[in-house]
Amino acid sequence: MPTRPAVLIEDWLPFEAVGAESQRERGASSALPPLYFLHVWWARRPLTVSRAAILAGVLPQWSPDWPPPLRERFHDEKTYRDWFVRLLGITGDPVAGRKLIQWAKERNIKLDVHPYGGAPRAFTVNPSPEDLTLLRDLLEHTWGERDLSVMDVTAGGGSIPFEALRYGFTT
User: Fold this and answer.
1) Which of 43, 78, 119, 138 is deepest in the core (most CB within 10 A)?
2) Is 123 contained in some domain?
3) What is the four-CA torsion angle of 116, 118, 119, 125, rounded to 10 degrees?
4) What are the pLDDT digits (tens) for 117-163?
C-alpha cells in the first residue's frame, strides 16, 4: 500500500488568523455570508474555518524537494505559508485587529479607525485564477491528479461543500 503524502494540516495551520477571521465573520449579522440565509442551521461552521480545513487537508507540507517550478514559486516555507494564508482570503493582520477591538471594549472606547485596516472579510475573497492554477499544480504533484473530490458526509449547513466548490473541487 503506498504511503499517504504528508499534508499541511498535520504540520501547521494559522490558528490565530483563522480564528480572528471566523470571529469577524460572525460579528455583524447584517454582514453574514449569503449561505447563512438559506436556512437556519444553529451549528453552521464559519466559512473561513471550513476553507482552511479543506485546503490544509489536501495541500502538501512544504518541501525543499519539490520539482523546479514549485521550488521557484515557493523557495522557502515562509513563502508557502504566506501564500496559503492569502489563498484563504486572509489579508492584513486580523489578529492585531481582533486585539485592538478587545482592547477598546475593555476600556469602553469607540474606535475611530477600522480595526482591520480596511481589509475585506476573508469569506468575501475569492481565489484568483493564478492561485487556483497553482493549487492544481500542487495537487497534481501531491496526489497525481489536478481534480479531487471533497466529501462532507454530514453536510449540515453546507459550509464545507460551499467552500469546496469555491476552490473548484468536486463535492
Assistant:
1) 138
2) yes
3) 130
4) 889 999 889 999 999 999 999 999 999 999 999 998 877 778 889 89
Cα–Cα–Cα angle for 109, 114, 115, nearest 5°? 70
59 within a domain of the structure (yes/no): yes
Domain count, the chain: 1
- The DSSP code sequence of 35-49 is GGGTS--TTPPPHHH
Residue 76 DSSP code = S
Query: How would you class 101 by CB atoms within 10 Å of its CB: exposed for 0-12, middle for 13-18, buried for 19 or more?
Result: middle
Q: Is residue 4 part of a domain?
A: no
Q: Which residue range is the domain that position 80 belongs to?
A: 15-166
Please check whether residue 6 lies inside any domain of the structure.
no
Neighbours of 117 (CB within 10 A): 13
Distance CA 46, CA 48 (A): 6
